[in-house]
Amino acid sequence: MTTTRKTLLQRVRDPADRDAWEQFFELYSPLLEGYARACGLARADAQEVRDQCLEVLVRRLPGFEYERSKGSFQVWLQKIARGKVVDHLRSARVAREETAELATLGDAGLEPDQHWERQWRSEHLRYALRDALRGETSDAERAFELLLLDELGVPEVCARTGLNANQVYKAKARILRRVREVLERLGVGAEEQM
Amino acid sequence: MRERCLTEEELQGCDSQDPSPDRAAHLARCPGCSERLAAARADASLFAELRGVAQRPWTTPSVPGYKIESELSRGGQGVIYRAVQDATQRVVALKILAPAASGSARERRRFEREVELGSRLSHPGIVTVFDSGVTDGAPWYAMELVAGETLDAHVARTQPALDEKLRLFLALCAAVAHAHRAGILHRDLKPANVLVDATGRVRVLDFGTAIDARRAAQRRVTAPGEFLGTLAYAAPEQVTLDAQPDTRSDVYSLGVMLYELVTGRLPYDVQGSLSAVVENIARAAPAPPALPRRDRDLAALLATALEKDRERRYPSVEALARDLEHFLARQPLEARRHELFHVTRKALARHRRAVLVTALLLLLGGGLIGAALRERWRAERARENAALVSAVMQDLLGAAAPQRMGADAPLRDVLALAAREIGTTLEGAPDAQAAVQLTLGDTYRRLLMHTEAETHLRAALERFRAVDGADQLEVARCLDLLGLVLTHENHPEAVLAHEEALALRRAALDPGDPRIAESERGLAVALAAQFREPDLERARALLASALERLLAAWGEDHLEVAETQVALARLESWSDSPTVEGLLARALATFDRHAQQGERGDPRSIACLTEYAAFLQSRGRLDEAEALLERAARLTEELYGGELAAEMLRRFARLRMARGDALGAEELLRRALARELAAWGERRPEEAQEIGALTTALEGAGAEPPYAAAFARLRRYRGDGAFEVAQWMNTIAVALAAQGRAAASEPVLREALNIRCRAWGSDCPVRQRSLLLLAGVLRDADRKSEAVPFVQESLRIAEHHGDEGPAREARALLASCCASSAEAP
User: Fold this and answer.
1) Is A87 on the interface with B (CB under 8 A)?
2) ipTM score here?
């Protein structure tokens, strides 16, 4: 099995795989922090929780064996995050009033678990997109951005980038294919929520 | 006409709306196109999902209110432009978060924090943030534009004299200290983050950039190129992730920068593998800076700033700056005053607990802040302070692991140092001296250094007695501890010490007070060690009373109760009382419940587990025994770390023998010996020799086995009738017999039997077991007629005590002896 075919989770078992760890942090930091915020923690506390979780990951992932019976990595990580949030709330119990006040600062209206599910996917998508764009020319990247975010039609994109329609379609297909590949490496099905 | 396949554009059209009839017809006929359509639809779905989550990337550097003139620098995080603020015509540096970075919540947060911190700090040495905002989804901020060069570039170009360098550094310290006062850590101080402008003014950049230094360290580990330049300045706690960085982490980074300023190089090697670099930062002592004699103070200052243990570092940037000013004014430094201590500290760097104790004791009387405190001690007679110090010491030393610390020479040195200090520094405060000496004695006791423990406890006792109105309860505690030590040494005075403690506690305390039980238990154990029938009776009564008292005070679910149950069970097991298993099971249940609640098991539960295991083993329930022994071993390891203690290995060895695995037992005994030698080699050479000789005996087909001499020495050391002596003899004899060396085994067993007989009288159940062992060996050696009287005697004792199990065993053995001897001519 070549390195590129390995999932990120398999790769981070090797503490020396720096690139994998870098990607790993980039991907999971916002997720963990967002979860802690959704649990009602203030920003600084959420960051603390995030760091504690990352520390657990640094320690435990090298020996992490995927066991179906124990549930997926997603579930495992959520357990860790939940545990750390609970620890945090417990330790802050003395400062109860403050906690109550800070709780209102969390992402409003979202149950933490829903948040987790939703964010899990969107963070992976976002990460995959960033990764997929990395190897692209600036024109192709720009064309994709115009399609995706400015919601422009192909002719307009051609006009702005100087690419022809075929190049734009090719770029789009190529980037999407790469997004799929990245998602697969992350162990997230591309079509999971279709 | 051949049908035309759909173009990309037409396919894209089909995925959002129903295809026109002719296209639909083509799609139905052309597998290629319908496959492409399916793929396009999947793409469209993924595309839509991405649209939902992707954040608008930054595209054009256009910020309202500013005219961007040129790009100054471009980094992973963002681009810095030179810009002019429309309203004020002020030239600023405009930093805009890069598109890739603005997609990441972490980068955004980091950027926001930079803005927040930059606007909170207003100091001539810190780059000011004027303005900030978000344009097209990309956050930006405007800050003071400093025309200057980085500190290292400046120093390399201008080659300033030492004092000039130090003044630059002091300006840097002032800026960092200002931020610290505002509650802000820099966490990524390095020459590249310090600018010196044309007028020589120092400016610190990038506050909060390394918002999370621990993660930053991880990140750096992922990108060696970018990281080495930065990691070189990180504090040990930042790279080892041992603790959250605090102001002292910035002190350390400043220390590295100062070292580099002064010497032109870094304090340690940051070349090589990342793990080696991290290791160096965490542990390598800074290379002594080559400085002229008159600048020697600077070396002390650097050493204090670069302490690996931040407790020993300058506590604040101000303290560092102050000393630097002292140095510039050629005045004595704080750091110099620490130096003597510093040397001791270096030697003890690995022994943090010991260092803390030393620090504490030096604090009591030494040259640091001790004088004032000592005055107070004298003035107030400071009983509470003594209690406090004593409590702190107990806390520090409480986790001292005897097995691990046994050979810990530095710890012993520190304790010896502490002992010396008591005499001088606490002079005039005998109650304080007594309290500290009591703690010291208790520490030695837990380290199994009984001679020293005894000395200190006796001295503490003497001092308590010299003080009018000494706290009688402390005296009692001292006596109890002394009693425990003496019991261990098989000293008859143990009983007296516990008796007195018990009397004092009974007089001073309410009859229901559980502390009385502590003395009762101590006395009972001391009495039991005498192995005389009336003493055993009294011990049993005392333990029963202690148990009752504890149960009344705390109920069943208490560790003290469990501990007492174990002591009682041990006593009862000698008479094979049917209550033994119940007591042990209840105690174990209590320990287990508490272990579930707390994080770790209680050290006292080890005794419970081993006692229970021994009981089960004696009942032939070997699997259960082994399970408990394994638990005991695991817990021992968990609590004390390192290899299994010799004691535990010997227990496993006995179990192996019971399973008939003599070679396995021998191997374990050998390990026990090695362990014992390693731990006690220096301290108790005699005993180590003894055990060495015993174990060698197992090997030897030597004509003159060295048992006799070895046992003689062991007895001299342990006293006649020592439990361990007979125990060891039996263990070894059984191992020898199991290896078919009955001839070697027999004399050992006879000797063990004699010891037991002398010690515990002829009717003791322990003797019964010895008799049975000897008989078994004789039978196996085909000397059945000689075995018979021993079995008969054994049976008599078992029946006398009504012990059915051992009696059955004896009858079976008797039957086998008689049967075969009947067959013999």
Assistant:
1) no
2) 0.78
